Amino acid sequence: MSMTEKPLPPADDDCCGGGACNPCVWDHYYAERKKWRLEQVQLKEQEQLKDQQESNQ
Asked: What is the CB-side half-sphere exposure of residue 33 using CA atoms within 13 A?
């Protein structure tokens, strides 16, 4: 039902572990995961609204 797939965390060898990368692969992952979660909330709200409208008919 999602328009985008849930982002996958970086592979173990994607992160250098040094902490000096800006942005880090983990920063990108967390940003993409946040966008995905917000999309999921919006989709759920849309589905609930559609169900309410259908039950009121």
From this structure: 9
